Amino acid sequence: MAGAAIVACCCAAMPLQARNVPLDDDGPYSDDLTEAAQPAIAGATGSDATFNSLFSSWQRMDNGGIVSAPRQAIYIPSGRPVEKLELTSNYGVRADPFNGQARMHKGIDIPGPVGTPVYATADGIVSRSERSSGYGNLVAINHGNELETRYGHLSRLLVSANERVKRGQLIGLMGSTGRSTGSHLHYEIRIAGAAINPLPFVTGSERAMALNSTPPVAMGGPRPSDEAKIK
């Protein structure tokens, strides 16, 4: 199911408030390699199945199938978090760039110069805007119903915790803070705390361009002169 179709199911109100995010899973990598083979939603076996399951679950909420606390809006991340979308690392098991060991990579890595603008991919409330372990400077946005996006390795944070943001709003600048070998954005989508593959949420033409791009992997981090330009 296309990302645009899912966006149509979103409600009009903003999420209720920022949630406190557990800090025990605070980095772009995991040693649990089984995460790559486990779909985030029960019954999903691939990208389309994940979308179908998500849509069905939220549709049941609208139809009264789930009765719980006051209904939250759900804003689905779609499109790209940067102007130019390329990939240096995909979601899934890959070699750790620091020690060469196989580890689970929880998102996608998008390269670019230090200071490249980074944008929110959906409306929501900033749950975190801080220095955070392997992520370096991190912005996390709560989009409702335990749906979250994370933007890591930023050189500058341009939003604050509990701030309401809109899709397309500038939230930070790309960098190489934290556990990073060069200037890039680490982009994640999580559901109920579990990282899922972000690529299906990127609209069709942009996703195809990213998959077909073969940029050189950034190594060594930004130069001091590059960092000085954004201070």
Strand content range: 25-35%
CATH class: Mainly Beta
What is the rounded Rg? 17 Å
Q: What name goes with the CATH superfamily?
A: Glucose Permease (Domain IIA)
Q: In sequence order, what are the helices and strands, one letter per element?
A: HEHEEEEEEEEEEEEHH
**Major sheet summary line:** 7 strands, antiparallel
Number of beta strands: 13
Secondary-structure-derived class: alpha+beta
* Global mean pLDDT: 73
Tally of discrete structural domains: 1
Please bin the fraction of helical residues.
10-25%
Give a nutshell description of this structure.
The protein contains four helices and 13 strands.
Keywords:
about 230 residues, alpha+beta, single chain, 4 helices, disordered N terminus, 13 strands, Glucose Permease (Domain IIA)
What features would you describe in this structure?
The structure is a single chain. By secondary structure, this protein is α+β, with helices and mostly antiparallel strands. It has a single domain (3-16, 30-229), classed as Glucose Permease (Domain IIA) (Distorted Sandwich), CATH 2.70.70.10. Helices cover 16% and strands 26% of the residues. It is built from four helices and 13 strands. It has helices spanning 3-7, 47-62, 204-212, 224-229; strands at 29-30, 92-95, 102-105, 108-111, 117-119, 124-132, 136-142, 147-154, 156-157, 164-165, 170-173, 184-191, 194-196. The strands form three sheets. Strands 4, 6, 7, 8, 10, 12 and 13 form a seven-stranded antiparallel β-sheet that branches. Strands 1-3-2 form a three-stranded antiparallel β-sheet, with no helix packed on it. A three-stranded antiparallel β-sheet has the order 5-11-9, with no helix packed on it. A hairpin with a 2-residue loop joins strand 12 (184-191) and strand 13. The protein starts with a helix and ends with a helix. Residues 1-24, 39-48, 66-70 and 216-231 have low confidence and may be disordered.
